[in-house]
TrEMBL record:
GO terms, molecular function: ATP binding; metal ion binding; polyphosphate kinase activity
Residues engaged in binding Mg(2+): 465, 495
Function: Catalyzes the reversible transfer of the terminal phosphate of ATP to form a long-chain polyphosphate (polyP).
Sequence ranges of Polar residues compositional bias: 37-54
SUPFAM superfamilies linked: Phospholipase D/nuclease (SSF56024), PHP14-like (SSF143724), PPK N-terminal domain-like (SSF140356)
Protein name: Polyphosphate kinase
Assigned EC number: 2.7.4.1
KW Cell membrane (keyword) present: no
Gene name for this UniProt entry: ppk
Source organism: Streptomyces argyrophylli
């Protein structure tokens, strides 16, 4: 770590700080930039919406792969973050010091797009990143844009922490998302699709099919597609139909040959059918093309003349609003709200750029949507369908396969029997790093062993998201059925997993588990397991505190940390916290935990402030934070003050970041990096120099209002010196200038650093960690 610089002085010696213009907060010109850069207007020109020329929501996707990758977006929250200046003892910090949250999220998704645009990314992974970008943007509109519109309509939206008015934010979103969607479509049509064709994977349209392929698909249409289609006419006797969110539709114009009258009809593309149909080996056509083929539409509208057809798709407000204080039964209230959610108002209309103006006017009028919310694009629409293409068995076009191994402290080397995890934890704490360390042979095995062990008396567990065939749930059910006391806290409000979690809650209840839903008004987002075991005359508690969900499938794709321990203090803390979640305990202080909403923000801010004190007296001081999102103003202001005092601050963020780094007099000691890749960077780490005795915490909390104020979150202090050193090495590597990453500038612009001055690739931290695990097993790449 370099020597910290002395406390800065403001320009002209008066302590004033001059902030650079927030280019990321201004409307963007439609000029696309090459290699991930585009020119932007620095002036606050009025946003112009051109006339039309024209997925990660696992619960809405019909492809198995999509359910695994949907969380490659940062967590979203529809509640707009209002900001109140926190009282401080020092000089006031400058206005405009926060970057806009929505713009920062769009910049995150642009980084996803840059991975799709990068020719060095394996080809099918590029297609996957295109699908992830589309899925991410779907959820952004469904939650953030919908929430913003709702607050504008009700008059409760206030100026954001970045200083923008709500309408300014909305217009920025329209302009910026329009530009990114155009780049996304261009990447598919001009780059990825042709490259796939060169590799024998042809994504074609109906007119490109041979007569033989069309005949084959006609047979498929008659027998498997036609029976499930329902054309809906629009006329005085048939009102305009409800169009469900994220559904793909055909707007069809037909003419009655007798009367000569033209009519509009809507045909919904069945969501349960395969998005891309195989016309012949290696050749795939969108299903809407098959439905819209001339002789196929004639089957749907016999006796009518087919004049034209156009694909369209709408995105609706799908955020939940459940007033828990008024809900006698939260489960029932949520089930009712889920039924209402599908009827949310539209917030985006995607149409093929070839759409007829008269048809578009009809859609705009009937859907009650503004022209600014219309996005004309070249077909095919909804490129989340590329998740299926990524699933093709072409390993040479994907990242090399990696199979996680058992953590060395849990591996059984003397026999083929499963390791005794309890014995291993009595010997030492185990710090897990997924997906490099196997989830199934660590956390999953921990709970399965607990369920089968006759000496285990009780298991307490939080579940925020899990898989459809979860071995974690199966283990809890087995434990309950064998007579163990099992408490499961199921967060049934986990966005877009509500249906699945309601299902698991009922299944667990039926098996005899005690199922609770946490505290009124708070989501339970902490990742905790507690096992109570009878050992002789005493009871011993074994604990797991993690940064990721108990989800065996995403554990193979998400980068997460977890601590397995038999430490009595952690066990006592988890007992107290579970008692609070299931009963009426009001405990707010813990031994080795920081818990939101009461102590987590204050605990982190106090530690940041303490680094300033260490630095002033010459002791080692630093702040290093790795999170998914950095938005909370109180935490950011503490980091600004630490920077002003000369404390070096490193922030490794995957998604949203409202910090302006590198501003003279404010944040020149702050560096912000972002890393995206084959694995979703999901862990949260908080490290402090602490005067030469480093302090490191891991846990579930991001630095956002909803995490710190409206959720139960938990961080655990890592006490093993070797574990602390390993986590600090990880943070050092992630922040190193020799590691490939994106760097955030003071104007809010992210710049990708993938090669060095000689054009050689920088280190890929994920590949480095994969290779380290392979070397440990003797299978490293040469």
């Amino acid at each position: 770590m370099p020597e910290p610089s002395p406390p800065p002085e403001g320009p002209a010696g008066n302590g004033a700080v001059t902030l650079p213009p927030a280019r990321s907060d201004a409307p963007v010109s439609p000029v696309a930039r090459k290699n991930g850069f585009m020119s932007q207007q620095d002036t606050q020109a009025e946003v112009q919406h051109p006339q039309p020329s024209v997925g990660s929501i696992a619960a809405h996707r019909q492809h198995a792969v999509a359910a695994v990758v949907s969380d490659l977006e940062p967590d979203l929250d529809a509640g707009l973050d209002t900001y109140e200046e926190a009282p401080t003892d020092g000089a006031p910090l400058p206005q405009g010091r926060f970057l806009d949250r929505e713009r920062s999220w769009l910049a995150f998704n642009e980084r996803v797009l840059e991975l799709a645009e990068d020719p060095n990314t394996p080809l099918l992974e590029r297609a996957n990143f295109l699908a992830i970008f589309a899925s991410n943007l779907d959820e952004f509109f469904m939650v953030r844009v919908a929430g913003l519109k709702r607050r504008i309509a009700t008059g409760v939206a206030t100026r954001s922490a970045s200083g923008l008015q709500p309408r300014e934010v909305l217009e920025m979103i329209w302009a910026r998302s329009r530009e990114l969607m155009a780049r996304h479509a261009a990447c598919y049509h001009e780059d990825v699709a042709p490259a796939l064709a060169d590799e024998g994977i042809h994504l074609v349209r109906w007119t490109e099919l041979t007569d033989k392929e069309q005949a084959r698909l006609f047979t498929l249409f008659r027998h498997q597609i036609f029976p499930v289609l329902t054309p809906l006419a629009v006329d005085p006797a048939h009102p305009f139909p409800y169009i469900s969110g994220l559904s793909l539709n055909l707007a069809v114009v037909v003419r009655n040959p007798v009367s000569g009258h033209k009519h509009f009809a809507r045909v919904k593309v069945p969501p349960l059918l395969t998005r891309f149909l195989e016309a012949s080996p290696g050749r795939y056509v969108p299903i809407e093309d098959v439905i819209a083929a001339p002789n196929h539409l004639e089957e749907l509208f016999p006796g009518m003349e087919i004049l034209e057809h156009h694909a369209f798709r709408i995105t609706r407000n799908e955020d939940l609003e459940v007033e828990e204080d008024d809900a006698e039964n939260l489960l029932q209230a949520l089930e009712k709200e889920l039924m209402r959610r599908r009827f949310g108002p539209p917030v985006r209309l995607e149409v093929e750029e070839s759409i007829d103006r008269e048809v578009l006017d009809l859609l705009v009028r009937e859907l009650k949507i503004s022209e600014a919310e219309v996005y004309p694009l070249p077909g095919p629409l909804d490129l989340t369908g590329l998740f299926r293409i990524h699933g093709l068995d072409r390993p040479e076009l994907k990242y090399p396969k990696f199979v996680a191994g058992t953590h060395r402290d849990l591996a059984e080397v003397e026999s083929a029997s499963a390791p005794d995890i309890f014995a291993a934890l009595r010997a030492r704490d185990v710090l897990l790093h997924h997906p490099y360390d196997s989830f199934s042979t660590s956390v999953q095995a921990f709970l399965e062993q607990a369920a089968a062990d006759p000496d285990v008396l009780a298991i307490k567990q939080t579940l925020y998201r899990t898989s459809g065939d979860s071995p974690i749930v199966d283990a809890l059910i087995d434990a309950a059925e064998s007579g163990k006391q099992v408490l499961v806290l199921v967060e049934i409000k986990a966005r877009f997993d509500e249906h699945a979690n309601i299902k698991w809650a009922r299944k667990l209840e039926e098996a005899g588990c005690h199922v609770v839903y946490g505290l009124v008004g708070l989501k339970t987002h902490c990742k905790l397991s507690l096992v109570v075991r009878q050992e002789g005359e005493t009871l011993r508690r074994y604990s797991h505190v993690g940064t990721g969900n108990y989800h065996p499938k995403t554990a193979r794709l998400y980068e997460d940390l977890g601590l397995l321990t038999a430490d009595p203090q952690v066990g006592a803390d988890l007992s107290d916290l579970f008692n609070r979640l299931s009963g009426y305990s009001r405990r707010e202080t813990y031994r080795r935990l920081l818990v939101a909403p009461k102590s987590l923000r204050d605990g982190l801010v106090a530690r940041i402030d303490k680094e300033v004190q260490h630095h002033r007296v010459g002791r080692p001081a630093f702040v290093r934070i790795k999170v998914n999102s950095m938005v909370d103003e109180a935490v950011i202001d503490a980091l600004y003050r630490a920077s002003q005092a000369g404390v070096p601050v490193d922030i490794w963020v995957r998604g949203i970041c409202a910090v302006r780094p590198g501003v003279p007099g404010l944040s020149e000691n702050i560096r912000v990096r972002s890393i995206l890749g084959r694995f979703l960077e999901h862990s949260r780490v908080f490290a402090f120099g602490n005067g030469g005795e480093p302090e490191v915490w891991i846990g579930s909390a991001d630095m956002m209002h909803r995490n710190l104020d409206r959720r139960i979150e938990a961080l655990v202090r890592v006490v093993d010196p070797g574990h602390r050193a390993a986590l600090n090495r990880l943070l050092d590597t992630g922040m190193s200038d020799t590691t490939a990453s994106w760097h955030l500038g003071p104007d809010g612009e992210w710049t990708r650093h993938a090669t060095d001055a000689d054009g050689q690739p920088l280190r890929n931290i994920q590949e480095m960690l994969i290779d380290a695990r392979r070397r440990r097993r003797g299978t490293a790449t040469p």
